[in-house]
Amino acid sequence: MRSEGALPRPVDPEAAPLLVLVADDNPTDRLILGRLVERLGHRVCLAEEGKQAVSLFVERQPDIVLLDALMPVMDGFEAARQIKQRAGEDLVPVIFLTSLTETDALVKCLEAGGDDFLTKPYNPVILQAKIRAFRRMREMHQTLQSQRDVIAGQHASLVRDQELAKIIFDRVAHSGSLSDNSLRYLQSAYAMFNGDILLAAHRPSGEMHLLLGDFTGHGLSAAIGAMPLAEVFYAMTSKGYALRDILLELNSKLATILPVGIFCCAVLIEVNPTKGLVEIWNGGLPDVMILGRQGELLERVTSTNLPLGVASRERFSPDPKVLVMHPGERLLCWTDGVIETRNGAGQLFGDAGVLRVIDAHKGEPEQVFDGLLSALSQFHGSPEDDVSLLQVVMPERDHLPAPQPQPLTAAMDAQQDWRLSYTFRAQAIRGQNPLPFILQKLLSVAGLRARAGALFTVLSELYSNALEHGLLRLDSAWKQDSDGFALYYQERSARLQALEDGWICLTIDHRPDVQGGELVLTCEDSGAGFSTVRSAADYAGRGLALVAALADELAFSEQGSRVRVVFRWQLGHTPEA
Amino acid sequence: MSESLQDVNPAVLQALRELMQDDYALLLDTFQGDADLRLRQLREALQADDMDAFRQAAHSFKGSCGNMGAAALEQACLEAEAAGLAGDSAEAAKALTVIEQAFVRLKPLLH
Amino acid sequence: MSIQASMSADSQILTINVKGRFDFGAHQAFRSAYERSGLTPRQYVVDLHETDYIDSSALGMLLLLRDHAGGDSADIRIVHCNPDVRKVLSISNFEQLFSIE
């Protein structure tokens, strides 16, 4: 030991004692070094040669190893190698004790995994400095390791959470009527992580509602808004609400729950094959395109609305554009991934890219969807994973799917002996659609549930007939061509907002009998009715032909401002099935 | 050159006494025992003309002499180690003689 | 991407310059540009003349700025958009919320 290295303060006040393994075949040196280490406040275990050092290392797991280089049985070089191997990714500093001075021998120490040297005779101050330095290094390493483990653990649990969330998301985002024959769509497996959502559902009266949405941002925050969106969409559609009502509710729900800065660009569509109409509302997505039977571009519906969840109720415009769509015509829409796809040179696929594809498939519109996909992947160089794409082909009228008959359950309908009457005045008519509420009441009669679709259609027709012709005095003759259609619905919206007077009265009378029951619906309005001169044209124009076909009886009175419809139903018999 | 070195550095011994406390006597005994062993190993190696064994014994002995503050003996061991490394048995024999003389001088000083 | 904010001499107009891509990467910098304490400008100008790309998260950031500046009463001008940027803003109908020049 060196005398000039005065003994350091007995206990290192900085930290808890370490366990130090000292391996030296020389008993004098071992004794002195062991005692020096103890004097520094650490614990010691002693080995007389390399092999013993390795087994003590395994057994006691010391924090620092002091190894003599030249020892019998197993030298320090081999012992260092084995110790380092057994330590794995833990940092166990190995300090060689040596009076060797030749560079070659020192190099051999380093190659065996040695971290430092301590030369004989021992200098207590240097020993203390080295132990301190390695303690700090070891602590830093442990901190790093445990932080890494925490991060890895959190990452694993995040991945697990995301997998679960994805299952839920996929069930929500891919449920409903997406398997309908008239639809084709592409949604990437990463839809959740880019915030894309696609929903489809049928109203009780048979129209299909579609929602293609794209939430801002990525990851879970983008996905989370999909849940309330889907819930409102499905619930309101199945209750028979119109697109407008659903849009109002979606916007206000999202505006309430989403933080500022997160919103949903969306297209909402109602497809009405019976009437050959589509309603389209576009808030923030690329143009919706309608192609003719030859694949020619008929119509582009540009976004004219703020995305969902941005605007306050007052500012929000829920009025969709209404268009005629003939059987075989197709509607295409997509999220901005399509037009924002870039190639290697950074060029955008863009609108022009879409139009090129449409142009290239003139005469074979059924190829447009696939053509778009392959054009995108060629342009991008790999299949796109940030794209959602939807195609709707307007079905033939006589190929409409039959409404799902529901099994007759209750014979309790004998108690359903009642009559109710609602009169809606101007303010109520401006603000809400009363039909879903009325329909719910009707469906409390189990025997009528099988005819829910027909009932809802009839109710809707009666109500809109009363509203549009009776109260708003719109002329169905306008609806002869597409321009007239647009005008018609524009006027409808304007006049409805300005409506100050008038009323619509719906009366429902249900009487059970031995075989089933009879339902009488009466719809009356404050309007003047329709003239006898044009009655035939108006009759057709008012969609009442449909009512006549669905109901068992149809009669007019008061110049047509009063319509009476009768449904009869029988136990155990589902007329529409 | 070895003559100019102290046989023992009293300051080192004092530091060791302070470090070892009650075990100081044990340390002296241990050193004594180890020194006897190394001297025997050196003699046997020289006899067998095993210069590698000679070098190893001298190397190990040198370490503990250094730690005990036995400067002259440490220097003698260093020279013996060099002779062993060079495989020069004549030099080795000379060095061993110097070691034995230094150890004889050292023994009474260790207390 | 780099973002620079400068206040007019009379402390009435805060101009925020966005250079390069205006996307999620700009989030923090864009926020700090208007959130620095003590700023109460009457008007905000978002100058996009050096912006070559804008995505929907940037739209979200603009909405956050609008919220910060008082929501419906905010006076925010978005100026010097290139045609691509302009298109993204108008698809989302942001003219209804911002004055876009």
Automatic annotation (TrEMBL), chain A:
Modified-residue entries (4-aspartylphosphate), positions: 68
Keywords for the protein's UniProt record, in alphabetical order: Hydrolase, Phosphoprotein
Ranges where the Response regulatory domain occurs: 19-135
InterPro entries in UniProt: Bact_Sigma-Reg (IPR052016), CheY-like_superfamily (IPR011006), HATPase_C_sf (IPR036890), PPM-type-like_dom_sf (IPR036457), PPM-type_phosphatase-like_dom (IPR001932), Sig_transdc_resp-reg_receiver (IPR001789)
Membrane-spanning intervals of the chain: none
GO molecular function (one): phosphatase activity
Entry's Gene Ontology BP terms: phosphorelay signal transduction system
Protein known as: Fused response regulator/phosphatase
From TrEMBL, chain B:
GO process annotations (BP): phosphorelay signal transduction system
InterPro entries per record: HPT_dom_sf, Sig_transdc_His_kin_Hpt_dom
Residue positions, PTM Phosphohistidine: 59
Keyword Kinase (UniProt): yes
Keyword Phosphoprotein applies: yes
Positions of transmembrane segments: none
Highest rank taxon of the organism: Bacteria
Protein's UniProt name: Histidine kinase
Annotated GO MF terms: protein kinase activity
All copies of domain HPt, residue ranges: 20-111
Keyword tags: Kinase, Phosphoprotein, Transferase, Two-component regulatory system
UniProtKB/TrEMBL annotation, chain C:
Superkingdom of origin: Bacteria
Molecular functions (GO terms): anti-sigma factor antagonist activity
SUPFAM superfamilies found in the cross-reference section: SpoIIaa-like
Protein name: Anti-anti-sigma factor
Organism expressing this protein natively: Pseudomonas abyssi
